[in-house]
């Protein structure tokens, strides 16, 4: 009698562990393989002055640290190394003309990723135009896209809507914005956001 009870208890425990392990694996699979795609501007920036490392890159590094995601930095072929007062004029001209500046490198295995974090500063109400060059080159439909921005008052601006327009068959969710002047001291805000997404 005792032996049969022990066997029953052990069997129940093994079943419970197996089920819990299966559930955990399913949750991990739902998140899928992640990639961080971002553009960041070092040099002369509004509110933070001349910086060696761009605000958005710092946030991208936090995301990589928390999630283990791969990273692709969008680096424009043209230089944006200029005083901020000039940069905003260049950015405005690019947006008005619909310019799609070239960028360096490429991603040959984009199909391997299920979740893509898309980050950049806000230039004239949306992402910098060079990011739209990336969007034009890569089809991200069918993926989970998570926009994030650094800003000094614009929040997400129209980035969420613009990503949805670019990729109408993608799931755009979990967007996040943080002040550029906060990124060096408020890592906890980024971590809290990511934990809310399940990372």
From TrEMBL:
Keywords: Signal
Domain Flavodoxin-like: 53-186
Record-linked Gene3D superfamilies: 3.40.50.360
Span of the signal peptide: 1-21
Ranges in coiled-coil conformation: none
Keyword Signal: yes
Protein name: Flavodoxin
């Amino acid at each position: 009698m005792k032996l049969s009870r022990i066997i029953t208890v052990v069997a129940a425990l093994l079943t419970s562990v197996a089920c819990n392990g299966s559930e955990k694996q399913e949750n991990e699979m739902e998140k899928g393989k992640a990639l961080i795609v971002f553009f960041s501007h070092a040099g002369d920036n509004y509110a933070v002055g001349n910086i060696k490392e761009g605000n958005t890159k710092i946030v991208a590094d936090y995301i990589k640290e928390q999630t283990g995601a791969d990273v692709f930095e969008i680096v424009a072929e043209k230089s944006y190394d200029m005083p901020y007062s000039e940069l905003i004029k260049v950015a405005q001209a690019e947006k008005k003309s619909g310019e799609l500046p070239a960028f360096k490198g490429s991603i040959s295995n984009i199909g391997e990723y299920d979740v893509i974090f898309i980050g950049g500063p806000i230039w004239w109400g949306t992402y910098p135009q060079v990011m739209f060059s990336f969007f034009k080159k890569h089809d991200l439909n069918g993926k989970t896209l998570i926009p994030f921005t650094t800003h000094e008052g614009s929040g997400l601006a129209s980035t969420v809507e613009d990503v949805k327009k670019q990729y109408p068959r993608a799931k755009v969710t979990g967007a996040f914005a943080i002040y550029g002047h906060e990124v060096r001291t408020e890592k906890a805000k980024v971590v809290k956001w990511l934990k809310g997404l399940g990372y």
